[in-house]
Amino acid sequence: MSRFKLALQDEHRSNLIVSVLAIILGFLAGLLILLITGLNPLDMFIAMGRGVFGITDAGFNIRYIGEFLVTVMPITLTGLSVAFAFQAGLFNIGAEGQMIVGGYAAVFVALVVKLPIGLHVVVAVLAAAVAGALWGFVPGLLKAKFNINEVVVTIMMNYTAMYTTNYLLKLIPGSSLTKTADIPQSASLSSSFLSSLTNQSRLNWGIIIVILAIIIFKIIMEKTTFGYELRAVGANRDASRYAGMKVSRNIILSMSIAGAFAGLAGAVMTLGTFGFGRVLTSFDGYGSDGIAVALIGGNTALGSLFGGVLLGALQSAQTIMQVYGIPKEIAVIVSAMIIVLIAMKNGLKDILKRIGGIK
Amino acid sequence: MNVDPTAKIQNISVGMQQRVEILKMLYRDADILIFDEPTAVLTPQEIQELIKIMHDLVAEGKSIILITHKLKEIKQSADRCTVLRRGRFIGTVDVKTSSEKQMAEMMVGREVNMNIVKGEAKAGEPVLVIKNLDVNNNRGMKAVKGVDLVCKAGEITCIAGIEGNGQLEFVEAITGLRDVNEGTIILNGDDITKMSVRKRTNLGIAYVPEDRHRFGLVLDMTLNDNMILQSYYQKPFSNNGFFDFPEIRKYTERLSKDFDVRSSRGPDTIVRSMSGGNQQKAILAREIDRSPDLLIVFQPTRGLDVGAIEYIHKRIVQERDSGKAVLLVSYELDEVLDLSDIIHVFYSGQVVGSIPAAIANENDLGVLMAGSSLEESHESI
Amino acid sequence: MSTLYTALNMTLIFSCPIIIAGLGGLYSEKSGVTNVALEGLMLIGAFASATTIVFLEPYTAWAPWISIVVGAIAGGIFSLIHAFASIRLKANQVISGTGINMLATGLTVYLCQIIFNQQRTQTFQTGFAKVSVPVLKDIPIIGPIFFNNVYATVYIGFLLVLITWYVLKKTRFGIRMRACGENPHAAESLGINVYKTRYIGVLISGILSGLAGGILVLTQDTQFTVGSIHGIGFIALATLVFGKWNPFGVLGAGTFFGLSQIIRMFVNSVAFLSFLPDEVFFAFPYVITIFALILFRGKGNGPKAAGIPYDQGARS
Predict the structure, then answer these.
(1) ipTM
(2) Which of A224, B235, B278, B358 is buried deepest, with most CB atoms within 10 A?
(3) Mean pLDDT for all residues in chain A
(4) Omega before C58 cis (within 30°)?
(5) A225–B225: do the CB atoms touch at under 8 Å?
(6) Domains of chain B: which residue ranges?
(7) Contact check, Cβ <8 Å, A330/C227
């Protein structure tokens, strides 16, 4: 008990405790909804276990693990995007849109621009990052120069991204009304090696991009003066101004870099997982997953990876859950509950302290 | 009670506004009146009037609870005094039979030296020269109107006055946080009127801000992070944009030792968890250690316990004695009288009087702080 | 000329949910709680209304009216999550609101799966019927726009604008509510229960958003889908900035955004627009909202304490 009290009084550890509590309560809320609607909550966990460890009726199948990693990739990247902006005190609800334009840019380079093998895929991935950055730059600029709330702007940018790219995708030669032509091998992230390693799953070289993104995030935030400036601006804008930091520039840069991370998620999906560009009828929800991932991970690089793995486990189990008659939206419900609960972390800490007997 | 019932609240003085508050309590037939730091925004004369009103109310049979940190007011107005320290009950004393020193010791928990030991100032060359400065406040109204001021090396120049008479805007214009409409600010011969905050910092301005939580510290970062707030991009703290963490830690540890900054987990302490006194000492350490030519301290001891106040006053005098120019802005008359070498009184954005500290007294300062000139007040007497 | 009348008439219909949800946002913000969950609350209202009408319409002609009431109640109940999080547990209100939006998306589709075995509700047959007001509809200009072939729900929107104006400006409750959004500590010191007032503010925003969602789905759609609200809740939030936190401002801004929604239906009758692809008009309302935010920026009249959790102990 006294160790628990000590941990509560410590800023870092009490944040961790609250996050764990939020995850547990989030899953409990999911269970409750399953119970109320007459479904067996145990099935959800069985499905998750089977999804993550690849246990099927026909025995172990490593393909499930490959597909599990495939779901982890994009939400880890959008998680990094949201986390990066959070560190600078900004709420990036626009990862969805930034990812969409990133995906489009990658497909455009892949299908329209002719480049030699080796270079082609690199340029396509970079184009996605740049497009995403541009889509983050706009709300960053509006926030920095006009103090316009980034939340509403990024939402509007999400819809704008979807409709604009839907139109532009259909203009690319070879596109149908629902998707583009398959992208050429020279621009593809798909990997027969990774795929064969995991019994023909869609696992691809995107995983390298995810790992690199995590490392870059970690270095920027923890080792560089630039990351320090971003964190200072995020935590206290006035003190940062007095310290001589360029607050506007940092806001714009942080939103742009956040956009770049989301843009990369777009490249991983189009160049890797799908191998073509899709015309969207509604949002895929990777942006809101990213919010949950970032919050679970305390807005850090490794935390986002953890959040990505956790939600990825839930999402990769969706198809198995449907076999049990559990609607796949239960994953969205659990993520959403976790977001709401982590938003309340100050209040939860107070409650825990009261229970722990600390005034 | 002398109140004009038809006046708009925003147009009457703070002292008047306070009387309105008291009236409100009275017409609601309150028997117990709680005054929470009621004198913070009053002139000495207004304080005397308030104390008189409180005595009248007591005579009518009302009970008054006065919350204050000013010993003199306790002495003047209270019958009994209860001291709380860090949320704990320390003791209740009879005010008539207790000395200020005794009560101060209860507040701090140890013996205190109430008098600042301070030698003669050895004024040197002007460090900061301000000519005809005009500055707006946040609402776009003129807050500083044509102020001229000089701060000399080796001297503590003080700006006295009631809160909200342009002091904040004036200082923010000097530090670069606020744009100037008109006038010039010259530091060591360089015109810095339009320079960025960072350039000014590098030219030798240090600033201990009034609102230390808003401008002085990033509360959710560590002591390490806060100690390098202005110099993080310089060697030895970083090379080519990458931090040298051992160097930063060494620096924080040295400053903490030199300035007696206490924290639970040393350099890794989140600053929010530190006490107000230690937070302020950390800011002072950071600002003084840059060895500035001009040290601006704004309400340096607000809300601190007597022990921390004593320490901070001592360090400010030390800086003066080492030949730095110090610009002190304070709303507390005791602090002004104790520390300053020369006092300029701000009223409504203007300097309404300048008095060498040696000949200053509370009454004259109070007259100036209320916006009257000394000549007028002497005539009326 | 008749195209223009129809267009203006359609504008009224499309503005109505935006205005009502915007008014909801106004109550919440005036009491001091930022509510980015309007979108999710509308979604809940739309789902509840659509589900109710599917089951009730065979039995009663009042089904649409009952349905929007159910939508309003559902929105109100759901908003209590945001209220509890923001008010009692001092949540970051923007994050909490975002979580609730996501929760609404997940929960509504989940329930569709449980109830209808598909990703959306069943289609309903009638929804609201358009009405024409005798005599008034024959007034030149005003008649064809306001009184001919419109949904009666449009009048609810106008009425709510007037009521909101009256409540916020003229009643004791309204003044208390505004005090809680401007300076909660002062309000508390004068005996106003800040927590209770904020709960009521958020609850009203939930009821109105739920109502707006119900009206939207019953006047513009034939079933509930996850895309039914498609950002309207956020556009409603933008009407607050655009309308300077004033009920009549919300009315004006809502009408403007309603117009931006219907332009795509009339492109074909306007020659110089018809060559543009559909997607331009789909994106138009969102792009125009961004521009409106830029043009009408400024700290304006937003409640000072909106978005800041109230803590009795902390001093401002």
Answers:
(1) 0.93
(2) B278
(3) 92
(4) no
(5) no
(6) 9-108, 126-380
(7) no
Predicted local distance difference test score (pLDDT) of residue B379:
53
B-chain residues near A240 (CB < 8 A): 218
> Which of C87, C95, C100 would you mutate first to test chain A, the one with the most A CBs within 10 A?
C95
Report the percentage of chain A scoring pLDDT > 90: 75
- The answer to whether the CB atoms of A346 and C286 lie below 8 A apart is no
Indicate yes or no: CB of A239 within 8 angstroms of CB of B232: no
Distance from CA of C95 to the nearest CA of A (A): 6
Segment B132-144 shows an average pLDDT of 89
pLDDT at site C2: 74
What is the amino acid identity at position B220?
D
Percent of chain B with pLDDT over 90: 49
Q: Using pLDDT thresholds of 50, 70 and 90, give the confidence band for residue C3.
A: confident
Q: Cβ contacts (< 8 Å) between A350 and chain C: which residues?
A: 90
Residue A116 lies in a domain: yes
Compute the distance between CA of residue C87 and CA of residue C132 in angstroms, rounded to an integer. 44
- pLDDT for B122 equals 85
Q: Are A333 and C107 in contact (CB under 8 A)?
A: yes
Contact at 8 Å (CB) between B118 and B145?
no
CATH number of the structural domain B9-108? 3.40.50.300
- Residue B381: pLDDT band by 50, 70, 90 thresholds? very low
| C105 contacts in chain A (CB < 8 Å) | 285, 288, 329, 332, 336
Q: Report whether pLDDT(B16) > 80.
A: no
Q: Does domain C2-295 have CATH number 1.20.58?
A: no
Chains with ≥3 CB–CB distances under 8 Å to A: B, C
Mutate to test the interface with B, among A147, A225, A249 (most CBs of B within 10 A): A225
According to CATH, the topology of domain B126-380 is Rossmann fold (3.40.50)
CA distance linking residue B86 with residue A210, whole number of Å: 50
Q: With 50 as the cut, is the pLDDT of residue C315 above it? A: no
Lowest-confidence pick of A208-222, B65-79, C131-145? C131-145
Note whether residue A118 is domain-resident.
yes
Instruction: Output B371 or A191, whichever has higher pLDDT.
Output: A191
Mean pLDDT, range B177-186, rounded to an integer: 94
Confidence of residue B241 (pLDDT cuts 50, 70, 90): very high
B175, B242, B273 ranked by CB distance to A242: nearest: B175
Task: Tell me which residue of A259, A7, A246, A39 sits closest to A144, measured CA to CA.
Answer: A246
Task: Say if the Cβ atoms of A242 and B241 lie within 8 Å.
Answer: no
Flag if A336 and C105 touch (Cβ within 8 Å): yes
| Residues of chain A contacting B241 with CB distance shorter than 8 Å | 224-226
Instruction: Please determine, for residue A1, whether its predicted confidence score (pLDDT) is greater than 80.
Output: no
Indicate whether A19 belongs to any domain: no
Question: Fold match between B9-108 and B126-380?
Answer: yes
B188 backbone φψ class: left, alpha, beta (φ>0; ψ -120 to 50)? left
Between CA A304 and CA B47 the distance in angstroms is 57
- Tell me whether A236 touches chain B (CB under 8 Å): yes
What is the pTM for the complete model shown?
Answer: 0.89
Q: What confidence score (pLDDT) does residue A336 get?
A: 95
Q: Specify which residues B136 forms β-bridges with.
A: B142
| Pairing between β-strand B350-356 and β-strand B238-239 as defined by DSSP bridges | unpaired
Does a structural domain hold residue A354? no
Angle between helices C153-170 and C2-31 (to 10 degrees): 40
pLDDT at B41 over 90: no
Residue (of C236, C282, C255) closest to C13 by Cα position: C255
Contacts of B369 (CB under 8 A, 6+ apart): B43, B44, B160, B161, B162, B345, B347
For residue A232, give the nearest of B197, B218, B242 by CB distance: B218
Average pLDDT, chain C: 90
